């Protein structure tokens, strides 16, 4: 055999200790790359016994008969054939690679012993030492310093439409609830009001908008979905519930919060907290609401 074909993980495979890795050989007939029945049976038996093992490499060999090119191709076909038989039946390292090593194998005087594929593998008991056996030095994990407690601002300075600055007092308790909420939790936004039959914010709603904004800034992994609801009518003909939820999303996005972290949906009057028509102003206010659904945090 003039050439050796190998499916390897690392070029250092042959420097691994003999005791660390196991080997299993399959033999082929002259100029054949598919296994005869007896070898197929041996491979099936090996697979049954090694379902929890992990393959490190597969090397293919031929005898010395034939040209360099033909032998190299034949060795490749033998490895590919064996690989197709074991794929998805036993673990194989994800960094499995294909290499040709030329005249790097020692020929046996018995030709039949040279026509083979050798599987190098680790048994389950040795998997915990896999990197050590392969000579892979693990990089030390960086020490992650615990983050300090998140400090929510109690007020912010914002510029009004007329250009003047305004101090807005924020509800830290509400911000903390949103910031610490888990995925799937839903929180109602109180005191977020719109002009009648519109999706324009009333001035007294500005604190709630900035509370959401500051919370999103402090929690970069937080993703939310805004749910809009309306009251006092049999149907949301103007689609106000959707437009109001969208208006909040547009505000947050305009202040630098990525669109991928925001979504919205209007539910009209389909999810009232109190039956419609409402009996009291408090019931109408409860039904006319916007909620924050925490999608990810």
From TrEMBL:
PROSITE patterns: OMPA_2. Keywords: Membrane, Signal. CDD domains: OmpA_C-like. InterPro entries: Bact_OuterMem_StrucFunc (IPR050330), OmpA-like (IPR006665), OmpA-like_sf (IPR036737). The keyword Signal applies. One of its GO terms (cellular component) is membrane. The keyword Chloroplast does not apply. Residues 183-297 form the OmpA-like domain. Residues 1-20 form the signal peptide. This is OmpA family protein.
């Amino acid at each position: 055999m003039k050439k050796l074909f190998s499916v390897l993980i690392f070029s250092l495979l042959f420097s691994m200790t003999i005791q660390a890795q196991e080997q299993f050989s399959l033999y082929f007939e002259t100029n054949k790359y598919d296994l005869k029945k007896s070898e197929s049976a041996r491979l099936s038996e090996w697979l049954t016994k090694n379902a929890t093992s992990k393959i490190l490499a597969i090397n293919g060999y031929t005898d010395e008969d034939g040209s360099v090119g033909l032998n190299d191709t034949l060795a490749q076909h033998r490895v590919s054939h064996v690989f197709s038989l074991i794929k998805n039946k036993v673990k194989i390292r994800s960094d499995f690679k294909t290499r040709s090593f030329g005249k790097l194998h020692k020929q046996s005087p018995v030709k039949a012993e040279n026509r083979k594929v050798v599987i190098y593998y680790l048994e389950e008991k040795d998997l915990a030492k896999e990197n050590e056996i392969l000579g892979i030095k693990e990089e030390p994990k960086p020490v992650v310093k615990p983050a300090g407690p998140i400090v929510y601002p109690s007020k912010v300075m914002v510029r009004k439409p007329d250009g003047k600055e305004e101090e807005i007092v924020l509800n830290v308790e509400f911000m903390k609830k949103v910031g610490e909420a888990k995925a799937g939790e839903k929180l109602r936004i109180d005191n977020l009001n719109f002009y009648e039959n519109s999706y324009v914010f009333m001035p007294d709603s500005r604190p709630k908008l900035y509370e959401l904004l500051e919370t999103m800034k402090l929690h970069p992994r937080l993703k939310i979905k805004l749910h809009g609801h309306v009251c006092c009518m049999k149907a949301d003909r103007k689609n106000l519930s959707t437009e109001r939820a969208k208006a909040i999303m547009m505000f947050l996005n305009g202040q630098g919060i990525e669109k991928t972290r925001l979504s919205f949906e209007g539910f009209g009057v389909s999810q009232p907290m109190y039956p419609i028509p409402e009996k009291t102003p408090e019931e109408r206010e409860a039904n006319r609401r916007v909620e924050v659904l925490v999608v990810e945090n």
